[in-house]
Amino acid sequence: MRIGIDAGGTFTDFIIYHDGGAMETFKLRSNPRSPASVILAGLAKVAGSRRAEVIHGSTVATNALLERKGARTALVTTAGFEDVIHIGRQNRPELYNLTPVLRSPIIPRSMCFGVRERAHFDGGIAQRPSARELARLKTRLRKARVESIAICFLHAYRNQENERQAAEALEGIGYLCTSHDVCPEFREYER
Which distant-in-sequence residues (6+ apart) come within 8 Å of 46 by Cβ? Predict the structure, then answer.
């Protein structure tokens, strides 16, 4: 059995593809305060204790990204790489247009903060972030009224120590995630 779920602002849609090939759909009223409870109720209704492959999407999350209505988010990265999210890569819809309309980054440059730390490509730690610098950063993030923090240090996919240290120091400000937890891959921008 495969179950597709789309959590929207008004309804949460379920599409069920049964092992025999039959399909069915149903909706449950969404609960913005507890979206997971609606998803779990729908799964219990259709699958019970049976095993099922679940594919989940969220119109709410997609719309928040498109409309730039998400949480006030800061990017904390290796010092010197604060502009990487704005520079991007050569991936663009009009490759030969010399004056393309630039996309607005999800996180504005004023919310990108660098930390003096460094891990090498092989995972060796060249510099650990200082507790003093992280304490100052925590103060700056609070003054900026940050609700969410994304930590993405160079080569954290090979060695997570510096990201973990920063995450511990910045805990308590708001939602916090690290690149090694979300997507432990090389490269900076896509993560």
Answer: 1, 3, 14, 16, 24, 26, 52
Q: pTM of the prediction?
A: 0.71
The residue assigned the tokens 């006030």 is: 72
- In CATH terms, 2-66 corresponds, of 3.30.420.40, 3.40.1180.10, 1.10.357.10, 3.10.490.10, to 3.30.420.40
Q: How far apart are CA 93 and CA 159, in angstroms?
A: 34
Q: Which residues of the chain have pLDDT under 70?
A: 90, 187-191
Q: Residue 99 corresponds to which tokens in the numbers above?
A: 């004056």
d(CA 123, CA 158): 5
Can you give the residue ranges of every domain in the chain? 2-66, 73-182
Q: How far is CA 145 from CA 27, 105, 110, 157, 176, in A?
A: 37, 19, 12, 29, 14
Residue 155's CB is within 10 A of a number of other CB atoms, namely 22
The answer to whether the CB of 85 falls within 8 A of the CB of 34 is: no
Helix runs in 21-75, H state only: 35-46, 59-67
